[in-house]
């Protein structure tokens, strides 16, 4: 047994490094209490009004008479209304209609109208007409027509044009609206272009979500010991997010050791071993509905990295720092691609396809691919007020994967990191 421990120490490094910088992110009030947001209600109220006006501005630019929203993330952005978000992502049972020359109406799940009390952007709340097969069955057709009649009546009565932007709609619903003479447009593009530019108040809300996420990451760091399962470690992030007012995690991307490569394996009951890399991507929808999308990699048992782990980690840091440094407003996507960090050939088969992506209430446009995958016809401009995530995944044949990611605000001077959770010392 002593000989096995000695060999393990040689392979993984025997120095235990418990990073005190990470302990600073744990809840200072104690492990038994949630984090409480210090932001005043006025910050949230201004963000709500800004977001709804962003949508209305895009509607004017697109010359559409109405915006019909089913995506719960878009409804949250428009009204700050959140009700059974995950459930309604796959059960289209609540929706919103914003009229260019009329009111902003929320169609709420019957019996849940009260969850919207006090939200300033909603002019009217009506009971939603659900026509999904789950609840309608053989009554789907008459319920669908009743839904379409109500939507058409509202569109006709407020004098706008007959162009309607729609984010997500079952084919039958689209057919019914077209039968009534309406032209449908891509409301998801409209919404994501509106969401892309953040106000100062939105950034404050996002900073708080990141603070909660980093507290969860500190909890994960503390329990990253041999003998734990991947799921046990991942649960710490869920716990901190849920108790501090957050919502959900979009993925289950935490793996250890050989399960880090290839990437995109979901966390499991695999028991982590001393010295293995633990790599993860938070994809956390936190307080106020904003996303904290951060990635880190560290060793189980807080031991020094071995030589190969250090080499991979250093390359990942180089990619992050290089791409952060070149970001500036006014840069086209093609210009970023041309100047971006070049991934060495030996790492390319194991690469992460995204170099950058937008982040707001979820991952969002633009998603800019890594240089081997970039399409020169993918056009766009990096703008001040965007929040972009800078990504890195580095691995080679037979190695573990190092996953790093940081979230940055585009300012007049360049990229300002919003997260501060420490990188590893190597």
From TrEMBL:
GO terms for molecular function: aminopeptidase activity. Keywords: Aminopeptidase, Hydrolase, Plasmid, Protease. InterPro entries: Creatin/AminoP/Spt16_N, Creatinase/aminopeptidase-like, Creatinase_N, Pept_M24, Peptidase_M24B. Residues 51-197 form the Creatinase N-terminal domain. Pfam families: Creatinase_N, Peptidase_M24. Residues 204-412 form the Peptidase M24 domain. PANTHER family: AMINOPEPTIDASE (PTHR46112), AMINOPEPTIDASE YPDF (PTHR46112:SF3). This is Aminopeptidase P family protein. The lineage of its organism: Bacteria, Pseudomonadati, Pseudomonadota, Alphaproteobacteria, Hyphomicrobiales.
